[in-house]
Specification:
It is a single chain. With about 240 residues, the protein is an alpha+beta fold. It contains three helices and nine strands. The protein is about 20% helix and about 55% strand. Strands 1-2-3-5-6-7-8-9 form an eight-stranded antiparallel barrel. It is elongated and about 75 Å long. The chain starts with a helix and ends with a strand. The N terminus is likely disordered.
Length: about 240
């Protein structure tokens, strides 16, 4: 009888300990930093919250500076030359995820798929030198605003490393992206400048088959393209 009581007490103690450990490991929240975006001068942080056993909601906010290792080369034509193109601004990315198989109980990890919405709002100075048909040089400067909106699906895998840390591999994120560029001229330029600018831009984006019709009246370009997301993030659960 005494042994039975002792075993009962030990069982209750172990059950409480296991339940407490499960509660400690039942992390419902995670914050992360996108490692790939750091290369391009962007600090992007995210917050993920578990919604039930398999679903989660993730929201990411990023700020891009003009610095970064990735450079966009400028236009270099006989009559129109620009420097390297830089831009800065912010991005906003909400996601819904569904985790297929978790590697641990009550943990946001393993394979997942989901959908995303991505909004980028950037600004850029588009400047250079233009030489007209009379060999007269003009300095030009445009205030450029870039608004890029995309939606799509994604597949990824989140690898746990230790009790609280994870590495999130966004393997594929195909979707559709809407580009809207507004260019406001700040200098006096001849009319022929826009003809040469449109031709230069069409050659620059030759593989995308985009028709540019910029003028003193029309300062906006809109087009739709396929998009693709990928990324690697380091996360901390709590």
């Amino acid at each position: 009888m005494k042994n039975f009581k002792l075993l009962t007490i030990l069982f209750l103690i172990s059950s409480v300990a296991i339940s407490q450990e499960a509660e400690e490991n039942a992390y419902k929240n995670e914050i992360g930093v996108d490692i790939i975006d750091l290369i391009d001068g962007t600090l992007q942080v995210s917050y993920e919250r578990a919604l039930g056993k398999n679903f989660s909601f993730n929201i990411g906010i990023g700020h891009k500076t003009e610095e970064g290792l990735i450079k966009i080369s400028g236009i270099d034509r006989p009559r129109l030359k620009t420097g390297d193109i830089t831009y800065h601004g912010f991005k906003f990315i909400p996601e819904i995820r569904y985790y297929i198989n978790k590697t641990q109980s009550d943990r946001l990890d393993g394979f997942y798929f989901g959908s995303y919405f991505k909004y980028n709002n950037f600004k850029s100075d588009f400047d250079g030198i233009y030489t007209d048909s009379q060999d007269i040089d003009y300095d030009f400067l445009f205030d450029t605003k870039l608004k890029v909106t995309s939606v799509g699906f994604m597949v990824g895998y989140k690898l746990p490393i230790g009790k609280r840390f994870t590495i999130d591999f966004l393997i594929a994120g195909p979707g559709v992206v809407w580009h809207k560029y507004t260019m406001k001229n700040k200098e006096d330029l001849p009319d022929e400048f826009y003809d040469d600018l449109n031709e230069a831009l069409q050659n620059y984006f030759d593989s995308l088959n985009i028709e540019f019709r910029l003028s003193q009246i029309n300062e906006r370009v809109d087009f739709v393209l396929p998009s693709f997301r990928y990324g690697v993030s380091l996360g901390y659960s709590f």
